[in-house]
Every structure is written in C-alpha cells, then in structure tokens.
Specification:
The structure holds 2 protein chains of 2 kinds. By secondary structure, chain A is mostly helical. Helix content of chain A is 78%, strand content 0%. Chain A is globular and about 70 Å long. By secondary structure, chain B is mainly alpha-helical. In chain B, 73% of the residues lie in helices and 1% in strands. Chain B has a two-stranded antiparallel ribbon with strand order 1-2. The chains are: A mainly alpha, B mainly alpha.
C-alpha cells in the first residue's frame, strides 16, 4: 500500500517535470513560429533597400536601420573585443591566482547581468549630455561596455584551460612571457576566444535599452557616427508602439532578421564549443 | 609560478596593457556609481532618500517626483515572474538531469538556452501583438469569472481586461527568466555526486524521493543563487516589459491594470525629460535600480561559488 502510494507520488512529480519541459519548449516554438509567421510576410527587397517614408504613407524600408545597426555593433566590437581579450589575458596570465584577478573576474560576472538600461543612462551622462546631442558613438560605447565583461570572462576561462605545461615548454626555449602568450597561448585558445566574441556580439546585437538614449533614432539614412543613428532594435520599439499597420509589418520583418541573426550566431558558437571542447 | 625570467621591456609594456584593459571593468563599475550619484544629486537633495522612496508622486508638471509607483510596478512584475518561472524552471532542470532519456537531454538543454538567447525586444513584440490580445480575450476574462469571484483574491482581478497590464508583463518576464533559473538549477543538480544518489537508490528510494531528499538538499544553495540571479535579471529587464505594461504611474491592487516599473519609466521618459530635476529624478531611479541589482547579483554570485572555487584557486 505504502509502496504504491510512493510510486504514485513519484510518478506524479516526474510527470509534472515532463510537463514543465514541454512548457519550456512550447514557449520557444510559440515565439519562434510567431516571429517567423509575422516576419516572413514583411520580408521584401524594399525592406532592405529603401529608407523609411514619412509616417503613415505606404512603402519604404529600413535600410537606414540595418546599416546603422551594423555600424554601431561593429564599432562596439572594435572597442569591446580588444579590451575584453586583453583584460581576460591579464586575469588568466599575469594575475593568475592573485586576489586582484579574482576580484575583477567576480566584478565582471556581476556587471554582465547589470540592467542594460542603466548602462544607457550612464553613457548618456558621459557622452550625450556634455555634447548636447545623441550620437552613434555613444550607442557603440554603451554596447561595448556590455560586451567587455562577456569577452573578458570567456577569454579568461579559455586561457585558463590551456595547459600550463605548454607555456613551460615555451619558457624553456627562452621565450619572454608576451611571446608565449601571443604565439602559444592565443593560438591554443583561438577557437574559444572567437566563440566568446561571437556570443558577445549575439548578446549586444539584440540590445535596445542602452541605445534608446545614446544613439537614439534617425529616420534618415546616415553613416555619420556623430549624429543620432537608426538601429534595428530602437526602430522596432518605435514602430511597434506606433499606430500604423505598415510600421508594425516592418517591425516584424526587422524582428525576424535580428532573431535569425542572433540564433545563428548562438548556434554556431555552441557548435564550436562542442566541437572544440567536447560534450558539455 | 612564473619562471624567474629577466623581464623583457616589451613584456612589461604588454603586461601593463593587459592590466589596464582588465581595469576597465573596475572603472565601469566605479564610474556607474559615481556618475549616477552625481547626476541624481539634485533630486537626492530635493526629495531625500526616504522621501523619494516613499512618495507616490510622479508629476513632471509640478516637478514632484517619487519612486514608489515605479518600485511597486517593479516589485509586482518581478514577484509574478518568479512565481510563474521557478516551478517550471525547476521542473525543466529535474527533467533534463534525472528523467529525460540521454538522447533528449542535449537538445532540450540547447532549446532552453536558445530561449535565453532571444533578445528581449522580441519578447516585447510577441507580448504586445500576440500574448496581450490572448490575455485580454480569453485568459483574463476567465480568471475574472473564476478566481475573481473569490472574496479576498477578487481584488487582484478587477477592472476591464485590456491585456496591457501587470499580469501580462509578469508572464512575459517569467518566460524570459525560465532559462536562467533552469540552466543554473541543472548545473547544480549535476553536481550531486552519483555515489550519494546511488546509496539512496540502494536503500529503496524511488526516483522522486532521491530528487527530493538527496539532490535538492544537496544543491539548494546553488538553486537559491539561481533564483536570486533571475530576480536580478527580472528587475532590470526593460524592453519585454515596456511593450506590455503601459506606462502608468499608479499603485493598484488589480493585476489587470497598467503600471510602470523603474525600467519602463526610464525607457519612456528619459528622452522627454524637459527639466533638470525631472532628469535628475530619472537618474535617481537608475541609481536605485543599479544599486539594488548590483547587491542582488553579488549575493547570487556568492551563493553560486562552486565549492572548489572557495579554496585556493591555483
């Protein structure tokens, strides 16, 4: 009797956990299918090749936002990647095992999750308010700030995995530490670092909040980083909240493109990790 | 551990360079605190700390500001999100670690991580155009006609269901944080030594009893850390909430009312702030949010320290 009761209880609990997993998968498919169905309808050459038309008129596209997004993200990567990789190198090599390295790496872990909108207000105070205008640079800097701790931590972890004996072999040949790092350690950790960079780009490519008050938005085509510049995400927000049906359409189109881009980066990143570092 | 080499000058330069790069993290954290503090100083001076935290005013015309409405919205959406997310996330973790056959574990783990990779603005779009209408049309009227009839619980479900409200925001938010909680719980469950579980099986425990009495107690600290981390995430989430919460500074008992969180207030009003004290008050909100989530994330990080990390870490 008691045994049966225990079996029943176990059965129910495990059944509920299956249900939870199904629910998790359900949300994923719900969102993906929803974005796909709405987004595919909005995809057209015009979406990529034309600039927005005045509000309320039919037609137009989001060329300005695609270019702007690409520009902001690339500049952010140009700032964030070197700082992150070098910083991670310091933690894993020169400061390895020292309290300072521990401290910085914990701090980095914390700010990885700090609300991104706070970063936006920070950069606003630093770069927008003093200059008196929004700018693409400010947007890129806020994305870079979000990127640095991500790249730094992955670099640190990847380099820690490189066997110490490898370095000793190089030291034994008389190589100074910087050469060992540049020619041995980086080479051994290259795929891992690259994956970290890919994932960090995936992370910032979908960020909206920090761009709202830094790069702001621009309904005209612009590649001038000194001016407000359009980004896909801010445009999605503006268009989705706006009253026009074709704005909503274009917002869905942009959502689809950005989702596919990010999922692609994430999947490629995970595949590289699995291929390089085995099943984990 | 470093060999006693004669330091090469280039090596000195390179180490200084990497050291400076790693310091950017420290500079960012310090900078955030200092800059936000300086920018919000006029508001701190004018409204005080307790006064600001307890005032329900948010009136740009009279230039009187308080954080309570935003704090309330943040608290309610976060609590709802955790309530919805934690059971599901733990269920997923149990499923992936203990129940699922081997060939399913990988794919489901990946699927959950993809859920985490989807940017929050997509959750916002989906919430606004798909979830909100469903909530307004079916779920909220249903809740109103069932739970809404109950004597005390009823106040939670008053008003006209519009779909743009606290409940929808909490739901969307919960789906966003499920992956974080689930993957941390999964990693924590996986740390339970197999030998301990096997001993429990050997004395005749069922699978559920092993999970409940061995795995969960063994990993409760890390699971709690995961919950705190998700809490930190939920607090600071902006776009997913901005789409489906409206931006209405009010304290309401009904979950079917629009409200405002700190993040939504910032997202909607920051570029429109037309007076210095208005802007300073917004910075003040950002400072509160930053300080709060920083502390929470630090606590989570402490709870999640792996046992081996606590000792000397080579």
């Amino acid at each position: 009797m008691i045994a049966r009761w225990r079996r029943l209880k176990g059965f129910t609990a495990l059944g509920l956990s299956c249900l939870a997993a199904v629910l998790g998968l359900f949300w994923l498919f719900f969102i993906l299918v929803d974005v796909l169905v709405h987004g595919v309808r909005a995809l057209s050459p015009e979406l990529f090749l034309q600039d927005p038309v005045p509000a309320g008129l039919p037609g137009g596209g989001l060329r300005n936002a695609f270019v702007g997004q690409l520009l902001i993200t690339s500049v952010a990567a140009l700032i964030g990647v070197p700082l992150g990789v070098l910083g991670g190198t310091f933690l894993a090599e020169y400061a390895r095992g020292k309290p300072l390295a521990r401290f910085i790496s914990i701090l980095a872990d914390i700010i990885v999750s700090v609300p991104s909108i706070v970063v936006g207000t920070f950069v606003y105070a630093l770069m927008v308010k003093p200059l008196g205008h929004f700018s693409g640079w400010a947007g890129a800097v806020s994305l870079a700030i979000i990127m640095i701790p991500v790249v730094l931590r992955t670099t640190e972890e990847v380099l820690t995995l490189v066997p110490w004996t490898l370095r000793e072999a190089a030291f034994a040949l008389g190589a100074p530490y910087y050469r060992v790092i540049l020619q041995i350690v980086y080479r051994a950790g290259a795929t891992g670092i690259l994956t970290g960079i890919l994932l960090s780009i995936a992370r910032v490519a979908g960020e909206t909040a920090p761009l709202l008050f830094t790069s702001f938005n621009n309904s005209f085509f612009s590649v001038n980083m000194n001016e407000p510049i359009a980004s896909l995400t801010v445009t999605i927000f503006q268009y989705a909240m706006g009253p026009y049906e074709n704005w909503h359409q274009q917002a869905w189109g942009a959502s689809l493109v950005i989702t596919l881009f990010i999922l692609l980066l994430t999947i490629v990143g995970r595949m590289i990790i699995r291929w390089r570092y085995g099943k984990r | 551990m470093l060999p006693e080499l004669k330091r090469d000058p280039v090596d000195l330069i390179f180490s200084a360079l990497t050291g400076l790069a790693s310091l950017t993290v420290v500079v960012i954290v310090m900078g955030l605190f200092v800059v936000l503090l300086l920018e919000s100083y006029p508001a701190i001076e004018r409204f005080g700390v307790v006064g600001f935290l307890t005032s329900t005013d948010w009136d740009p015309v009279r230039e009187s500001f308080g954080a309570l409405t935003s704090l309330y919205g943040t608290a309610v959406t976060t609590i709802l999100a955790l309530l919805f997310a934690i059971p599901v996330a733990l269920g997923i973790a149990v499923f992936v670690t203990e129940v699922a056959p081997g060939f399913l574990r990988g794919p489901i783990g990946v699927a959950i991580e993809l859920l985490a990779a989807i940017p929050s603005i997509i959750y916002g779009m989906w919430g606004l155009f798909t979830v909100a209408p469903i909530m307004a049309e079916y779920i909220e009227p249903f809740l109103q006609s069932t739970l809404g009839r109950l004597p005390i619980l009823g106040v939670l479900f008053e008003g006209t269901p519009m779909g743009i409200d606290l409940l929808t925001a909490g739901l969307v938010l919960s789906i966003m944080i499920i992956p974080f909680t689930a993957s941390i719980a999964r990693d924590a469950f996986n740390l339970t030594p197999p030998i301990v579980k096997e001993s429990a099986y050997a004395v005749g425990a069922t699978k559920w009893e092993v999970i409940k009495d061995v795995v969960l107690p063994y990993s409760k600290k890390a699971v709690f850390g995961g919950v705190v981390l998700s809490l930190g995430r939920a607090l600071g989430e902006t776009m997913a909430v901005a789409f489906v919460l409206g931006n209405n500074h009010q304290i309401t008992t009904s979950l079917f009312d629009a409200a405002a969180t700190i993040t939504v207030t910032l997202a909607n009003e920051f570029t429109e702030a037309d007076s210095d004290i208005y802007l300073a008050s917004l910075f003040y909100l950002a400072l509160i949010l930053f300080a709060f989530s920083f502390v929470l994330l630090a606590v989570a990080k402490f709870l999640l320290l792996k046992p081996q990390e606590k000792g000397v870490n080579r």
